[in-house]
Design brief:
mainly alpha, 79 residues, two-stranded antiparallel ribbon
């Protein structure tokens, strides 16, 4: 098995465990205000906001690191 893949999987599981712990212990509602994007403040459970921001970060990281199949090719020699 690929060691790098195993370490990434373990790290992801630890982060998900932290999200579960935050969800169990942060049940109070908090306000989110983003004047340029939201016209009024939103009140949501803190754990839901943590999960939303985590999911947004994962999707953003995936899109940034996603590459073409086959990677970069060799440069063509100059004529």
């Amino acid at each position: 098995m690929n060691t790098k893949l195993l370490l990434k999987t373990i790290l992801l599981m630890v982060i998900l465990l932290l999200l579960v712990l935050m969800g169990m212990n942060n049940r109070q509602t908090v306000q989110l205000a983003m004047p340029p994007l939201l016209t009024k403040a939103r009140s949501l459970p803190a754990a839901l906001m943590y999960f939303g921001f985590f999911a947004l970060g994962v999707v953003t990281g995936t899109l940034i690191t996603a590459g073409r199949k086959g990677g970069g090719g060799k440069a063509k020699p100059a004529k």
